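Thread title: Can someone regenerate the structure for this chain?

I was given the following input by a collaborator and told the matching structure tokens would be attached. They weren't. Posting the sequence so someone can regenerate them.
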Amino acid sequence: MTMFKLSASVLAIAAAATAAEARDQIQITGSSTVLPYATIVAEAFGENFDFPSPVVEGGGSGAGRKKLCEGVGENTVDIANSSSRIAQSDIDLCKTNGVEEIMEVRIGYDGIVFASDVNGAEFAFTPADIYGALAANVAKDGAITANPNKSWAEVNAAFADQPILMFIPGTKHGTREVFDVKVIEEGCKATGAYDLFLAASTEADEGAKKKAAVKSCLELRTDGASVDIDGDYTETLARIEADKNGIGVFGLSFYQNNTDKLRVATMGGVVPSVESIAAGDYPVSRPLYFYVKKAHLGVIPGLKEYVEFFVSDDMAGPEGPLAAYGLVSDPELAATQAAVAAETPMGPLN
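Best answer:
Regenerated them for you:
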């Protein structure tokens, strides 16, 4: 049982942190998915340590990593939260701007769920269904054609005859990368569209052919059926509340905290839950990270202590407050704790 104090008001600390100005505070930015977890930790950190609560802001995984890589010094951020793994282009940008060493900290796992109005129709999706609804071009009668589907019943006869309207993460969100790879790309392959794109490619190199086919798979329709959401999950929820036909993409924890408003769909026959993600059964899950500018350790007050506190058993363990909020605890958390204690920078990407 945790010995740390935990306040009930996460929103209060977020507001206070935003208003704060002193640079003796840790500066954190990035993923809207990781934001609530980081906010919980920041609140508890401020209450239990002799350091001010960190400033935690959103803005998207990609944008956060770019801010991390702007340089070293008090005018730059200390940590970037991310719902997708850092890219080589980010690492290259960091090095260009003098950020030589980065610590990669995996905090646990989350799932991407598909949810609609709590009083709406039930859906049992597969990646092929989502691809058939959102893709710009689909496979039909052995050929590629512009997507003709207007209702979910046209995609799958078992579905309700309601207009296709999906609110998906914008391209700056880490969630979008996972959505593209694990849902759209997989659906493209399952429907046979990928093979048709591959056969139609004019690239000479086999690797280039595959990249071109994937790029074609990821082209989504632009007629209003697929709507990018650049804000956080609260904006997606607001869109669904405004149009009950809408289906949104959410993080599992957000859905779990809004079950009075949302009905979740199965994916591949599996109900998204902490248990199904921990068991590896739910097909659309992803690790969550944050990245630490190592040069700021020992310079920014409390930074090392915050990082260690975040991945402690008391916070990120299976009985901690992050798990209670919806984070799936990392079975390799002890290894992460050891790497943080040793201040181990990440190696090259595989």
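The longest helix spans residues 174-191.
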